[in-house]
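Quick one, tokens below. Sequence please?
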């Protein structure tokens, strides 16, 4: 099953470092970052989980829940969390899903059905595709996917930027231009007439007939 933007994120029940969760129920009315890892006790992933731990307040401020997954057991995750805190300087206060039977990795199309049904004996290289970030909205639909190679650490400042853009464009009839950051000018949606734009975005500028910019709405 190939997952695309606007698809419903597959639901699942799983054991985590904070107990059993039913994914859609756990999401509730929140936004979610669901990010995966090919194996515990790996160097790049250790720094990534630590980076997310350092940003937990930023995600919470945006109403975003964080859920990690690694293709190993919950017991291994709990041991790994000590290393993550040692390296990153922050405790891991978000749940980590155990996926020792590879069920969720397969459900989210990160491993093929032929991958078998156990993480035992598999190397990080065997699980290399399990390096994906999913941003999921309160409607349970996938809003963004990012897949990274194992040797390249993920940029979580970029993921925060994307969350800001997604939440803004959900609330208002706008889009964001290349490299947009919070507080910068936005693009008025093409579905908004000039007459409506005058009311919603007084003083907007027309760069091209199809490109109208305005200050970011609050």
């Amino acid at each position: 099953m190939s997952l695309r933007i606007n698809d419903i994120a597959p639901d699942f029940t799983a054991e985590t470092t904070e107990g059993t969760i039913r994914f859609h129920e756990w999401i509730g009315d929140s936004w979610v970052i669901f990010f995966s890892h090919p194996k515990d006790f790996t160097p790049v992933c250790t720094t990534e989980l630590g980076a997310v731990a350092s940003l937990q307040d930023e995600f919470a401020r945006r109403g975003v829940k964080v859920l990690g997954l690694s293709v190993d057991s919950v017991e291994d995750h709990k041991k790994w969390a000590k290393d993550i805190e040692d390296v990153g300087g922050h405790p891991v206060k978000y749940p980590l899903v155990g996926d020792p039977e590879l069920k969720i990795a397969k459900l989210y199309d990160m491993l093929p059905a032929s991958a078998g049904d156990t993480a035992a004996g598999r190397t990080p290289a065997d699980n290399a595709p399990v390096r994906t970030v999913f941003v999921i909205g309160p409607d349970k639909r996938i809003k963004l996917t990012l897949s990274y190679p194992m040797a390249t650490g993920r940029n979580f400042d970029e993921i925060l930027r994307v969350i800001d853009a997604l939440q803004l464009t959900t609330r208002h009839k706008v889009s964001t231009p290349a490299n947009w950051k919070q507080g910068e000018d936005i693009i008025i949606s093409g579905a908004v007439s000039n007459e409506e734009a005058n009311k919603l975005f007084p003083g907007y500028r027309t760069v091209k007939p199809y490109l109208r910019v305005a200050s970011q709405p609050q």
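The chain is about 30% helix and 20% strand. The two ends are 39 Å apart (CA to CA).
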